[in-house]
Amino acid sequence: MTTLYLDNNATTMVAPEVLEAMLPYLKDHYGNPSSMHSFGGHVARKIAAAREETANLIGADPEEIIFTSCGTESDNTAIRSALASMPDRRHIVTSRVEHPAVKVLCEHLSKEGCRITEIAVDGQGRLDMEQYEKSLSKDTAVVSLMWANNETGVIFPVKTAAQMARERGILFHTDAVQAAGKIPIDMKRTAIDMLSFSGHKLHAPKGIGVLYVRRGTKFSPFLIGGHQERGRRGGTESVAGIIALGKACSLAAANVNLENSAVKALRDRLEQTILQRISDTKINGNTKERLPNTTNISFEFVEGEGILLMMNEYGICASSGSACTSGSLQPSHVLRAMGVPFTMAHGSIRFSLSIYNTEAEIDFVIEKLVPIIDRLRRLSPYWDDVKQSCVLH
Amino acid sequence: MTTLYLDNNATTMVAPEVLEAMLPYLKDHYGNPSSMHSFGGHVARKIAAAREETANLIGADPEEIIFTSCGTESDNTAIRSALASMPDRRHIVTSRVEHPAVKVLCEHLSKEGCRITEIAVDGQGRLDMEQYEKSLSKDTAVVSLMWANNETGVIFPVKTAAQMARERGILFHTDAVQAAGKIPIDMKRTAIDMLSFSGHKLHAPKGIGVLYVRRGTKFSPFLIGGHQERGRRGGTESVAGIIALGKACSLAAANVNLENSAVKALRDRLEQTILQRISDTKINGNTKERLPNTTNISFEFVEGEGILLMMNEYGICASSGSACTSGSLQPSHVLRAMGVPFTMAHGSIRFSLSIYNTEAEIDFVIEKLVPIIDRLRRLSPYWDDVKQSCVLH
Q: Exposure pattern of A149-182 as b/e (b: 16+ CB <10 Å)?
């Protein structure tokens, strides 16, 4: 059975060009870039080139790029570095809808004596900017706000928020794991001090991440060891992963217009047709300031997991909540923060597209999804109640 | 020019079987193991199998294995976790010859208020067990001693040292990055609580590491985020890296006898012939308790870097000091700790072999090395002094 993959916010296919670029570094060019011989030196030069490609995607300078193992490591590094740089400040400002890499870390830091403010979002997932402004204090060491939400795709006004933090001498970090490659980013035009993103969300393999640290920002390493990454991250470089990431970033830079035209058109087609053809459905999250590839739809009176399982029978991959919290029976913390009613949150599905999806795939999903929802609703006790109440009153 | 690779303690070639095993996870099977669909589920099952293969190499249970991004992350995690588990103890015992992943971390922790004892080694790189025993105190939270030294191959008696720590209620961590796959390890027969190793030292790619944590050991995560690795290490799993590591571990388990017979024989041939054919040479480190693949040889009156550069002309890759500290003009901290005189330390070369090396390669190295040393010595001002002093007195 063919896989029809609409779960690109969880992870993406490795682009063929990326695999091709990295393969020589899994085969012949296996030298350690720190070695004295030219066999290692060749690898060091390729890493420098990949660093430049990576920097270019976000309008950064190569020396502002630190390669890490994943978005989580980048987030942990940024927040801990900020706390280490400002030892007399113990307040962190974040939001109620962050990824666990920030949210769970902040919960942990609160046990270590930090004070955490989680800024609320409204019913459309938009940040409460008034509460944000009020939360910034002389004790605030760092703000960490995601650029775009992984579950709804809602984009936060991080540039404005970063400017407000800078004016108050507060460091600003953004988790841009979902934004990088999907919307244009130019760090030269922002006041953001640190930015995280991850290779496997933009068609590089899993196991490689990036932390951007603006030149001049005080930095304290998280992984301490050898001199790699100019002493900012110990550990032998994940060579093939770095080469892959460089290539993926250069492809992403070339494709970002496609994301915002073709991919957006496919997403809109999927979303609009579902809203038209299936009753009692609702988009979660503001539809104006949103990633072009993501839609989060609640199907009332059914369980998201039931929908996923039945779509799975046709090879259709999507997600309920984020992959990083799946396995839990709790409805998504993002939808709860938005005040989405329990029954709607439980029936929510995230479809996240990529440049590799086609119109035929979208049409196939709709063709299958309509009878799936119909069948599940017929099985649902809640649906019965509604139908009966319609008849009786 | 063919590469003749004798720098396997820096990094290794990815085994063809390993590349073959991981490739499907860089191509078709790109699902996120945390996803609800069967596309992700397949990947999760393969990770479970790789965890079992990894555990088998060191006689551990699969649930005692945490996948990390590198040996440095494993070392950082182990030591920080031990400190978090014993908040009323602030003393760390380590040695003077550790890898920077432990040594530099400990130096950093000393600035954060920890007290560090670095146990000395003798002229043959052997741990001072008397000093070690005396150093263990009621304030000692953790001991971190490498199993085998990366520069000399000298093996520490970690089993005895771990037993002594356990008897005193002290956690014991070992950096086994150089030992794993080269000598038999059976964690069931040791009192070691935590053990680090790295994929790229045993023919898996760079960017994947392991931390073994004995069942029942109190553990505090280092990378905090999602539920991955049963909540012990956040971050999307480095899927292809993990699959590769599993395969590499199962190959290493099958080849450990070969390491201690064929590879050892090649190393001995190289070492003995050098000692016989080149005057004023000396093995650094105890030759009895030593890894089978490593020899560290001092060539008096010459610079190690000169030797490396001239060998490089023939495609021969070796190392002076460790790759993780190269670029520095300081002689190796390991050789300094052993009291190797400055001129001898500066002329030291590490050859580290693997199962892929051949007798013909070893003979080629010797054939080229003899005239290289001869030529360099003729250029050396120190060598002239010696010759003249021989003539004059």
A: bbbbbbbbbbbebbebbbeeebbbbbbbbbbbbb
